[in-house]
Amino acid sequence: MTRRVVAQGTFDIIHPGHIHYLSEAAAMGEELHVIVARRENVTHKEPPVLPDRQRRDVIDALEVVSEAHLGHTEDIFVPIERIDPDVIVLGHDQHHDADAIRDALAGRGIDCAVERASGREPRYEDELLSTGRIVDRILALRASETDDVDAV
Ligand SMILES: Cc1cc2nc3c(=O)[nH]c(=O)nc-3n(C[C@H](O)[C@H](O)[C@H](O)COP(=O)(O)O)c2cc1C
Ligand SMILES: Nc1ncnc2c1ncn2[C@@H]1O[C@H](COP(=O)(O)OP(=O)(O)OP(=O)(O)O)[C@@H](O)[C@H]1O
Asked: Where is the Cytidyltransferase-like domain (predicted)?
């Protein structure tokens, strides 16, 4: 039987932390399905810069990913019911509570394990493993360039 794995996240600007997470999730089964969060559901941090479809298409193109799916707008368990995974792998820092997800799955009669992935630490100075921090660095660099031009 093919073991299906589900991973999920925003994936706005791809970085090595994402690759680490998706590779780890892919190694837990034969098929990796990735649910890409809808912009309207990213409410606990700055919303993504890139459109839903673009974020989905980039994840879909990765070799370790079997298929990337845009998330449901209202009910996060609708894609889960459709994919029918054997395991959902939560990201190391995802705010979702594993036991709450297990309870919700049981309530819907979905037989699926929930695991937590490991985090990937920076391997050299300056390596950025967070989309939010990449955006912050872009803004800081652009602001300092503008300051340089203004000073001329
Ligand atoms: C099992 C599971 C299923 C999810 N399905 C959806 C979904 O259908 N639609 C969606 O917009 N977000 C979905 N999400 C939420 C996002 O993937 C994501 O966790 C959140 O919106 C963005 O936060 P993050 O980037 O910190 O993970 C799901 C999350 C989990 C854990
Ligand atoms: N350094 C990392 N190591 C392992 N997994 C990571 C790392 N960074 C992100 N992930 C995982 O990748 C998935 C997608 O991450 P997402 O794009 O939602 O946020 P992010 O890259 O952490 O950006 P931000 O810091 O802006 O939230 C999540 O499940 C997250 O836990």
From this structure: 7-134
